[in-house]
Design a protein that fits this description.
single chain, globular
Amino acid sequence: MACESPGPPLAKIRGLVPYCQSIPSIRHLGYMETSVSISGWLLAYYGNLTSRQITIFYPRYKAGLKDNQAFQMKKWKEFGANIIPIKRPNMQNINFLMAKHLLEEIDPKALLLPLGLSFPQTVAAVARELLRTHKSFLTGSIVCSVGSGTMMAGIIRGLSHTSCRPDLYGVLAAKKGVLGTYTKIERMANCFHTYNLRIASPGYEYTQAEECAVPFPCNKYYDRKAWKWMIDHIGQLKEPILFWNIGGDGK
């Protein structure tokens, strides 16, 4: 994992750090969290390290805390983040706009970070990590969970600087349009083509956890869904198979 304890086991820190370094004058950052992600924990941890003020918005449900929220809040509080509920949560994009409005009222100089912490710097960082990978692992298949598509975009950009052309499988962590996801990844990768990319949609709900056994830290709401898909289709995948893990659960 790219982030060491007591931070979350999440590779997105590779993009968060250079992005925040590019905006040194902004000392107050906000984030609209979901009920299962650990990105808010990552931001709270990094904000604590760099003496930035962090405000985390979360969807508050009538039935109380659900999914991973109790654990999330423990981590946000541990690293000193401000916590504000979205009282009538809706779709993620609408929650984001509500959080943006609230943050502007609290501090006009603050910045709400994008959903999924999807930064160009993350794409570049993943591309560099791909280039550090021995070419013998890049000749078969690469399997990666896809949420925002940022990691897969980085993999593709990295491959564009090599002669390797493995089969790429992006496994959706939630139901969403395959064509739209493909287009978004292509745009973020900023390459002329996406090589042998296939988007697999196993049909998971976003908040549905996958409990299959995995021999390393693997997030049950994201990466583990891709691992399960890989195991189910392993006989159809070209070897060697490289599983690109993004994060663990941190528990």
